[in-house]
Amino acid sequence: MLKIAVLLLVVNIFLFVFFFIVLKIRFSPKRLLRDIESELNLLYKDLQHEIDMDVSLIEDRTASLRSLISTADKRILLAASEIEKREKSVSVADSVLSSGSSSRGSERKSVYTRREITENAAAAEKARSGADLRSGFIVPEIPVREQVVMLAKKDISPDEIAKILSLPRSEVDLILALDL
């Protein structure tokens, strides 16, 4: 029995030394630091990957916003120029109509020829400035598109509009198709 007890004691001492060495190696500070470092490297790689994805997403959205802002700016400028053109055409048309109605009294025509429009505009400008016109004629700034639409609203046929404005019939048809 003593032999068995001594044998068990030697086995216990051997196992104690074996487990001590194994646990010392497994839980050594160098090994713990190396394991922590490898985990941190993996976390760093994952974080870097997520950052790259987020940055590319932000860059894509920024580019998209820039293109939308550029398109909006172009539309705003176009709208501002159209408003300015309309205001100019309305003021010229008002001055032509007011000078035409004052010179003719209560008689008003529904269609004006180019000659009448330029004469009325010249008379209105002369009345405003009080000076002689050296150029002879003032060309009205009413856009062709608005002239076509205005004449079409007065039930003038596209052929007649083309003749009055000296435009091709196809252009008059295109303008009427877009605006009416």
Number of strands: 0
Kindly provide the radius of gyration, computed on alpha-carbon positions and rounded to a whole number of angstroms.
45 Å
Strand content: under 5%
Please state the overall shape, judged from the principal axes of the Cα atoms. rod-shaped
What's the rounded overall pLDDT mean?
Answer: 81
Order of helices and strands: HHHHHH
Helix content: over 70%
* Total helical elements: 6
Largest sheet: none
Uncertain ranges: 103-110
How far apart are the first and last residues' alpha carbons, in Å? Answer: 118 Å
- Which structural category do the helix and sheet elements fall into? mainly alpha
